[in-house]
Design goal:
mainly alpha
Length: 164
């Protein structure tokens, strides 16, 4: 099955496209689609990444979104004053339903958070959802998992990370 068929359906079950399911506000549909997108990444396929990007475009209503470049492909710890402010900046963006206004900026703020444990990102995602509603929780998950997916694709293809 080709890339377009995987993204936009066309299989024998005529299922909805992965991008459309990732753009859904129905939590079970979204969650299943996100797991599917990440499975593609584990396999070294960019299909899930492309679908996440399309879903973010659909959710934002903007076809000209920029994402964190794949060459960065990591949530890196940074230094200075921004890391302390980054979680609150993300929550403020969520409150204004603006996490997807500039995905690269939101992903950069995520990278500024000095969280050593995945649980801290989950807590921040929940706080963003509380501030902006379920759609902002889904937006946070797409932004975070897009970067995570880039890393997974690279690893599946044998590329080493910055610290490996």
């Amino acid at each position: 099955m080709g890339l377009l068929s995987k993204l936009f359906g066309g299989g024998k079950d005529h299922d909805s496209s992965l991008a459309l399911r990732l753009a859904s506000d129905h939590k079970p549909t979204f969650d299943a689609a996100l797991q599917e997108a990440l499975q593609y990444a584990h396999e070294g396929s960019e299909t899930g990444l492309v679908a996440m990007e399309e879903a973010m475009r659909r959710r934002s209503g903007n076809n000209d979104l920029a994402f964190m470049p794949s060459k960065l492909g990591t949530l890196t710890a940074r230094f200075g004053s921004e890391p302390e402010d980054a979680p609150e900046k993300l929550i403020t963006l969520a409150k204004h339903r603006a996490l997807l206004r500039d995905p690269a900026k939101s992903q950069d703020l995520m990278s500024a958070c000095r969280f050593g444990a995945i649980g801290k990102y989950r807590d921040l995602a929940i706080r963003c959802g509380e501030a902006g509603g379920p759609s902002e929780l889904f937006a946070f998950q797409l932004l975070y998992n897009h970067v995570s997916g880039i890393i997974k694709v690279d690893r599946a293809r044998g590329k080493k990370g910055f610290f490996e």
